[in-house]
């Protein structure tokens, strides 16, 4: 597992439900944003990978545990850990926490992301440059 990547997220009114807490599906958006920013921090943009390398990334499987509520205007940290690196997939462990705390997570998730050919949607190996960059920061 490589070093954790942390992406800050503020809870907006649109993220909440009638009870005033973050709607459960919006945690998936937070997790997605953090993975996108993790990739960006490594120097890779998804649109460039699609146009130049011909690959896209899709969520293959996700397991989420909702542990505590977040509310409007909370500042959160979404943490990504790369748990597994495979030829055609990545597995992330992710957590959502109150910003700047080491307290218990509000939400945890395990997300498997597959690399696909951008045209055929068939599995395709991760670009070698991406694998090299991931291994360089381990």
Unreliable segments (pLDDT under 50, ≥5 consecutive)?
A: none
Assign the structural class, choosing from mainly alpha, mainly beta, alpha/beta, alpha+beta, or little secondary structure: alpha+beta
Kindly provide the radius of gyration, computed on alpha-carbon positions and rounded to a whole number of angstroms: 16 Å
Strand content: 35-45%
CATH class category label: Alpha Beta
CATH second-level architecture: Roll
Mean model confidence by pLDDT: 95
Helix content: 25-40%
Q: Would you identify the CATH H-level superfamily?
A: Hotdog Thioesterase
Q: Summarize the helix and strand pattern as letters.
A: EHHEEEEH
> Which descriptor suits the 3D outline?
elongated
CATH topology: Thiol Ester Dehydrase, Chain A
Distance between the termini: 7 Å
Main sheet attributes: strand count, strand direction, barrel closure? 5 strands, antiparallel
Q: What is the chains' assembly state?
A: single chain
Number of domains: 1
Number of helices: 3
| Count of DSSP strands | 5
Major β-sheet strand ordering? 1-3-4-5-2
């Amino acid at each position: 597992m490589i070093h954790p990547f942390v992406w800050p997220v503020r809870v907006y009114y649109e993220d909440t439900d009638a009870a005033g807490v973050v709607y459960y599906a919006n945690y998936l958006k937070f997790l997605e944003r953090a993975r996108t920013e993790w990739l960006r921090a490594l120097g890779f943009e998804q649109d460039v990978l699609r146009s130049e390398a011909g690959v896209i990334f899709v969520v293959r499987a996700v397991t989420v545990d909702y542990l505590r509520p977040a509310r409007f205007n909370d500042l959160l940290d979404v943490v990504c850990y790369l748990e597994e690196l495979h030829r055609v997939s990545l597995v992330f462990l992710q957590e959502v926490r109150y910003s700047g705390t080491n307290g218990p997570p509000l939400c945890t998730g395990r997300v498997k992301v597959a690399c696909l050919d951008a045209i055929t949607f068939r599995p395709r190996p991760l670009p070698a440059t991406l694998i090299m960059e991931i291994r360089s920061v381990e």
